[in-house]
From TrEMBL:
UniProt record similarity statement: Belongs to the immunoglobulin superfamily. IgLON family.
Protein known as: (spotted green pufferfish) hypothetical protein
Top-level taxon: Eukaryota
The keyword Glycoprotein appears for this protein: yes
Bilayer-spanning residue ranges: none
Keywords: Disulfide bond, Glycoprotein, Immunoglobulin domain
SUPFAM superfamilies according to UniProt: Immunoglobulin (SSF48726)
Annotated Ig-like domain residues: 1-73, 83-192, 197-281
UniProt keyword ATP-binding, yes or no: no
Length: 287
C-alpha cells in the first residue's frame, strides 16, 4: 500500500506518522518495520510504501509538512480488507427421521461476510415399486407432488440452519456459502436420515411344476434392511429345500430352481433394520 503526500518548493521538513509514531522524517527511516520503505522524496511528492499489509496496519496515517509560512497535515485512513474464510463448520450428521437438526457455519473476513445455507443434492425421489404398488398414474403423480412439497426449499441466511422434525426427503448435501467484497468460500455437510423399512407390495407368482421361479422383495430403508424369508411360519435359510436367497442392496430374491408341489403356498418377506421392520406376503401357485 502506497501513501503519497504532495510537496512544494517551500517545504523545509516533512514526515509520515502512524498513531503518533514517526515512520519517515524526510529521507530518514524511523520505523523499525522492514515492510516500510521510501518510494519517492522530491519537490513534487513524499511517498512511502508498506508491503504485505495486515490487519494491524489499519488506521490513520498523517503526512506533516513544515513550510516557511505554516505547518500543514494531510491524513489518510487505511482500511484493510480480508478475504472470507469458513473457520468453523458442523461435521457430517447421521440422525433418525423426526429428529431436530442444527448446522453451524462461521466465517472470518473483512468486511464481515454474509453466510447462507442451501440443500444442494437431496437423494433421488424414491420411486421404487411404484408401478406395482400404486394403482394408476393419478396416484403416482399425487405421491410425487407430496414428495415435492415435503422436501421444500431448505435455505437459511444465517450461520445457523435449523431443521425441525427432519424427514427422509431432507437428507442430502448442504452447502454453506460465506461471501464478502473480496472473496467467496463454500463448504458442505452431509446429513444422513435413518428410517425404518417400507416394503413394496408382494406380487403373486404362478410357476409350472419343474420350472424355475422367483419371488422379489424390495425395501426402502436407511440403513439398508436385512431380509428374512418365511414359508407359512417357518424361516427359510439359503439352500433350504433347493431354494436360494440372493440379496443385493434394497432387493431380496427367493429363487426356486425346480418348483415342486410342496413349494406352492404362502411366503412372507420381512425387512429389518435398527429402526424397525416391515413385511409383505406372496402366493406361489401352479399354472
Amino acid at each position: 500500500s502506497n501513501f503519497r503526500c504532495a510537496q512544494g518548493d517551500v517545504v523545509t521538513h516533512t514526515a509520515w506518522l502512524n498513531r503518533s509514531s514517526i515512520l519517515y522524517a524526510g529521507e530518514d527511516k524511523w520505523s523499525v518495520d522492514p515492510r516500510v520503505s521510501l518510494v519517492a522524496l522530491n519537490q513534487d511528492e513524499f511517498t512511502i510504501k508498506i508491503e504485505n499489509v495486515d490487519m494491524t496496519d489499519e488506521g490513520q496515517y498523517v503526512c506533516a509538512v513544515q513550510t516557511s509560512s505554516r505547518p500543514t497535515t494531510t491524513s489518510v485512513h487505511l482500511i484493510v480488507q480480508v478475504p472470507t474464510k469458513i473457520i468453523n463448520l458442523s461435521r457430517d450428521v447421521v440422525v433418525n427421521e423426526g429428529s431436530n437438526v442444527t448446522l453451524l457455519c462461521q466465517a472470518s473476513g473483512k468486511p464481515e461476510p454474509s453466510i447462507s445455507w442451501k440443500l444442494i443434492s437431496p437423494p433421488e425421489a424414491e420411486t421404487w415399486g411404484l408401478s406395482t404398488q400404486l394403482e394408476g398414474l393419478e396416484t403416482e403423480d399425487l405421491k410425487k407432488d407430496t414428495e415435492r412439497q415435503e422436501k421444500g426449499d431448505i435455505t437459511s441466511d444465517d450461520e445457523y440452519l435449523e431443521i425441525q422434525t427432519i424427514s427422509r426427503q431432507k437428507a442430502g448435501t448442504y452447502e454453506c456459502t460465506a461471501v464478502n467484497d473480496i472473496d467467496t468460500d463454500t463448504q458442505t455437510v452431509d446429513i444422513t436420515v435413518n428410517y425404518a423399512p417400507t416394503v413394496s407390495e408382494g406380487r403373486d407368482v404362478g410357476v409350472t411344476l419343474g420350472q424355475r421361479g422367483v419371488l422379489e422383495c424390495e425395501a426402502d430403508a436407511v440403513p439398508e434392511a436385512d431380509f428374512e424369508w418365511y414359508k407359512d411360519d417357518r424361516r427359510i435359510f439359503n439352500g433350504f429345500d433347493g431354494m436360494e436367497i440372493v440379496n443385493t442392496g434394497s432387493l431380496s430374491k427367493l429363487m426356486f430352481f425346480n418348483v415342486s408341489e410342496g413349494d406352492y403356498g404362502n411366503y412372507t418377506c420381512l425387512a429389518i433394520n435398527k429402526l424397525g421392520s416391515s413385511n409383505t406376503s406372496f402366493l406361489l401357485f401352479g399354472e
